Amino acid sequence: MQRIRLRYTKRGRLRFTSHRDFQRAFERALRRAGIPMAYSAGFSPHPKVSYANAAPTGTGSEAEYLEIQLAQHRDPQQVRELLDASLPAGLDVTDAVEARTSGLADRLQASVWELRLEGVDPAAAGQAVEAFLAAGEVQVERRTKNGMRAFDARAAVARLEASAGEGDRPDGNACAILRLVVRHLTPAVRPDDVLSGLRATADLAPPVPAAVTRLAQGLLDEETGAVTDPLAPDRDAATTAPPTAAGQSAAKAPSGASPANSGEGTA
Amino acid sequence: MPVESVFPRLEALLPHVQKPIQYVGGELNSTVKEWDDCDVRWSLMYPDAYEVGLPNQGVMILYEVLNEREGVLAERTYSVWPDLEALMREHGVPQFTVDAHRPVSAFDVLGVSFSTELGYTNLLTALDLAGIPIEAKDRTDDHPLILAGGHAAFNPEPIADFLDCAVVGDGEQAVLEITDIIRAWKAEGRPGGRDELLFRLAKTGSVYVPKFYDVEYLADGRISRVVPNRSGVPWRVSKHTVMDLDEWPYPKQPLVPLAETVHERMSVEIFRGCTRGCRFCQAGMITRPVRERSITGIGEMVDKGLKATGFEEVGLLSLSSADHTEIGEVAKGLADRYEEDKIGLSLPSTRVDAFNIDLANELTRNGRRSGLTFAPEGGSERIRKVINKMVSEEDLIRTVSTAYGNGWRQVKLYFMCGLPTETDEDVLQIGDMAVNVIAEGRKVSGQNDIRCTVSIGGFVPKPHTPFQWAPQLSAEETDARLTKLRDKIRGDKKYGRSIGFRYHDGKPGIVEGLLSRGDRRIGSVIRAVYEGGGRFDGWREHFSYDRWMKAADETLPAFGVDVAWYTTRERTYEEVLPWDHLDSGLDKDWLWEDWQDALDETEVEDCRWTPCFDCGVCPQLDLDIQIGPTGKKLLPLSVK
């Protein structure tokens, strides 16, 4: 039984895909791509897929992870290409490795987020960040299934920096960009909780909803605040180095397999 | 001139609404064409929420048929939920298509598919959000044509004020013919404006343009006649009928949504039309004659569709799927072919007979046997003769006995309440039938955990059926009758706990009845309901009976009629019905005879295996039924 770990994205308008929506789309993509999946036993067998730590609906992501189990051995790069071709543009599969270590989920300790705040003055954002970081604790509230819940948004934040971004509107609007490194704790602190915290500590209120994107997930280096590639240990453990280009830069390997959308019909 | 996408403005609203994914498009197999490369542009609307509208086969078929044509583009639009509607109004975002997020007002045509009359208020919402005048008379040459289709379009009169035109019958060829007429008119420089275009469409004899017909009324409120007010416009508008389904294997590339929808499966229409002759069934009457897709055509559509979608379930659709002449071979062939692939097969709309249990067993060869659904429709033998649902209680018991014997544990039975000539006794017999089903199930299976669910809907008389003259049962009487049945079932000590009872109150049925058999005067009611906040009337949480009754009380007295006049009043032979000038192919005299037969409790056979009984469709349309068997086999697959 082979396990393959995949990194995928939620880009552009498809960031509004909920995790449940993604699961259905992914399982259909597996069928279209003809991936020889392992199935669970029981009345209604389903393909074995483990999802880890999905980004909230409405936030984009460059770094989502999941693991699939195959019934037959396949080249991870080929699986990546087939699935990428099979999924709608925006849900892109950007990396694949064969699992050779345990506990992918355990390695997802922290996330790097980018928050684009259109119409926010970068200097004001910088001051808000300073106030937030200076606070020992920042209580925020979020609506959950069980009503409003209050918790601290400060402790989970490992890094938070503000910089100036180019406004994406022609009128040259101000735009601040926040880079946030947040530890995965319980209760989970999401980017919007940090925004609530900035509003609570420094009255920072973006005029339009922030465009939020997860840039990375992985092990957190507490010293530098760096978040490292969670698939690296699997790559390192591969003794017989497979023909894999590292990380996201994996180019389209010309393997002769054509995209499996449909094709050979029986006329 | 390119049309700007409203997406950047919409995007800012999406974080504030429920299930934003339904508004972003990008479905697998969706199509976005260059605006400037096309000269005829359609927006297609299903006037309900995305989750209901997306899987609609009609819209999906037309979307693909139109987009396959060079120089033609089609995009889809659905009703937005009130949370987004409020934000769109606040921020000035117009009704948009989900494909390229273009404003609906920029297209040449807005084609709206009405499966049910309860979508009418949603049409008005969409028009208003689009910035298109709600009433056709206020539109200019710059506005799209508002075109209705779907089953409810067989009586478009209640929405005549809001429509420019309507098409009755199959849409595949019709949309292409309309496209050609629009293209020619535009190429000529739009001579004569909107009226000339509508006139050209009306002249074909198969596009209904309400404004070219005047309705005259009698002093008592009935219609005296409906007359064309312009020469060259036909007295009656005929329906479209596609004959060879194998020539129209659509959808070839079914849309696969990211959002969750009501049907998540690959659907193949295995035949169109039905001649069982159930007298309450509008679909069966207006879609005649029967036209089968061949076994090989079905096999190919399933194969290509599964490859294009990755769906795990195939639905073999029609009005009575087990009636396909080669259904046994189709079911076995598909079950064999996909045995390894964990593809589920489903066969909605099956009849009560033992053959269907064999079929059901075949379809669930690899899966679990949970529930089977049958629709006896009427509780007593007598009422089943009235509605021409030819199934005896012995048939039913024999069928469920086989089902329970084959490992099925739950049977669901569908019935209607409020059928013509119905008495309390007819309805109370539904309880007896359920008891007999449970008793048989316990006996055959030797177990007590047998369940039977009785599901009851209120009967609504529909245009172009033998019951179009029938009085509808009032909401109060419907509720009283169902309460008696509920008390009877609950009071049964031995079996009551094994019987599930589901029913709806009679009020929504009255509104549906008002809209189904309404005439142009109902338009004022629909408009008042819309202005009073009416939206999504097919959804219980949004539907308000009081809002409808209030609107009717305010507007109808001016015409000397009321809700009861439209619903619970029996019509006579002489009465001109609001939809008489729309020709479904059925001979009105035959419908009347069938109505008289119903009152005499006389049944009529199916013309597929008995001689023609002159319903009128085939000679009028110069057609014939098209059925197998072809004797062919499912294609062996060259690729696997």
Topology of helices and strands:
The complex is a heterodimer of chains A (about 270) and B (about 650).
Chain A: E1 2-10, H1 19-33, E2 49-52, E3 60-70, H2 76-86, E4 93-98, H3 104-107, E5 110-118, H4 122-134, E6 139-144, E7 147-152, E8 157-164, E9 175-183, H5 191-202, E10 211-220, E11 227-228, H6 232-237
Parallel strand pairs in A: 3-10
Antiparallel strand pairs in A: 1-3, 1-4, 2-3, 5-9, 5-10, 6-7, 8-9, 10-11
Helix pairs in contact in A: 1-2, 4-5
Chain B: H1 7-11, E1 40-49, H2 50-53, H3 57-68, E2 72-79, H4 82-91, E3 109-113, H5 120-130, E4 145-149, E5 165-166, H6 172-187, H7 193-203, E6 213-217, E7 223-228, E8 237-238, E9 266-269, E10 271-272, H8 282-286, E11 291-292, H9 295-309, E12 313-317, H10 327-337, E13 344-346, H11 354-363, E14 371-377, H12 381-386, H13 393-405, E15 410-417, H14 424-445, E16 451-458, H15 475-490, E17 499-503, H16 507-516, H17 523-531, H18 545-555, H19 563-567, E18 582-583, H20 588-599, H21 617-621
Parallel strand pairs in B: 1-2, 1-3, 3-4, 4-5, 8-18, 9-12, 12-13, 14-15, 15-16, 16-17
Antiparallel strand pairs in B: 6-7, 10-11
Which descriptors apply to this entry?
A: 267 residues, Alpha-Beta Plaits, 6 helices, disordered C terminus, B: alpha/beta, 18 strands
